[in-house]
Input
Amino acid sequence: MFFFEKTQKSLYVQEKSVYLQKNSMPKIFEYFGFIFYFFSNEHEPIHVHVKHSGTECVFDLIIESGKLKDIVRREKKGAKPLDSQDEKVAIEFINKYWQRIVRKWIDFFVMKKVVKTTHIKERI
Output
């Protein structure tokens, strides 16, 4: 009986994890008022949404041969875009943490893992 209960609990945890994956916008980083997150129904290329002070943009990470080649900003439909200073901060952050962003992307979208928010408390 114990094995059955343990298995049922395991299945519940897996189902809950899948539910969270499909019905969430995982916040992957917080950085001095900036929120970096994914939508749960994303597409390639790897990209991250960035919010700050009521503004928002999307940044595509262009990766070639395992190296970050470029970061391309796109405006999010219906959202006021980041101002130039906030865009600069977001790009600096992405340049520093791009490998962690990619790891979280793979964990969330490929491995179907729950991704936790990382709070960065040191300025770049």
Remarks:
- Residues 25-120 form one domain.
